[in-house]
Amino acid sequence: MNNPNSAAPEANKQRSEKDRVLIFDTTLRDGEQCPGASMTFEEKIEVAELLDDMGVDIIEAGFPIASEGDFHSVAEIAKRSKDSVICGLSRAAFNDIDRCAEAVKHARRPRIHTFLSTSPVHMKYKLQKEPQEVFEMVVAQVTRARNHVEDVEWSAEDGTRTEIDFLCKCVEAAIKAGATTINIPDTVGYTTPAEYAQLFRTVRERVPNSDKARFSVHCHDDLGMAVANSIAGVEGGARQIECTINGIGERAGNCSLEEVVMAMRTRGDIYPYWNNIDATMLTRASKLVSAVTSFPVQYNKAIVGRNAFAHESGIHQDGMLKHTQTYEIMRPEDVGVSKTSLVMGKHSGRHAFREKLKELGYELGDNSLHDAFNRFKALADKKKHVYDEDIVALVDDEIAQAHDRIKIVSLSVVAGTQGPQRATLRLDIDGKVVTEEATGNGPVDAIFNAIKTLVPHTAKLMLYQVHAVTEGTDAQAEVSVRLEEGGKEVSARGADADTLVASAKAYINALNKLSQKRQSVNPQTAAG
Ligand code: KIV
Ligand code: ZN
Question: pLDDT, tens digit, for every residue of 224-252?
Answer without folding.
Answer: 999 999 999 999 999 999 999 999 999 99
